[in-house]
Write a structure and sequence with these properties.
Distance between the termini: 41 Å
Oligomer: single chain
Number of helices: 3
Strand content: 5-15%
Order of helices and strands: EEHHEH
Helix content: 55-70%
């Protein structure tokens, strides 16, 4: 897959700092799919909380919900990182500075 066809853009600022942005209809559709999965998880927890809100079984549902939320987050980030064009912000800033210097020198 060419970089221009990838549905996400990943802006890397450092080892653990990044921002993922959807690109085009394909990226927004995939992000929407992940949000639908999250909505299903939240919907299940709401029904569970209404049913077992004052019983000891509520804690089991809460633990399952938290585990599901962590799994959803890790999988969604992994999915988007593997399908995203990586842009190194430090290199982008250096390149823009170089172009500005080049324009100043040519004047």
């Amino acid at each position: 897959m060419r970089n221009s066809d990838k549905p996400f853009v990943v802006y890397r600022r450092g080892p653990g700092s990044f921002t993922i942005v959807p690109r085009g209809a394909k990226g927004w559709a995939q992000l929407g799919g992940w949000l639908v999965l999250l909505a299903g998880l939240v919907g299940w927890f709401v029904m569970h909380a209404e049913t077992y809100g004052d019983q000891p079984e509520f804690v089991h549902g809460l633990v399952l919900f938290c585990a599901g939320l962590i799994a959803w987050t890790v999988c969604a980030i992994w999915w988007m990182l593997s399908r995203g064009e990586v842009v190194e912000v430090a290199e982008l800033i250096r390149q823009k500075q170089y172009e500005r210097r080049k324009q100043r020198r040519s004047k």
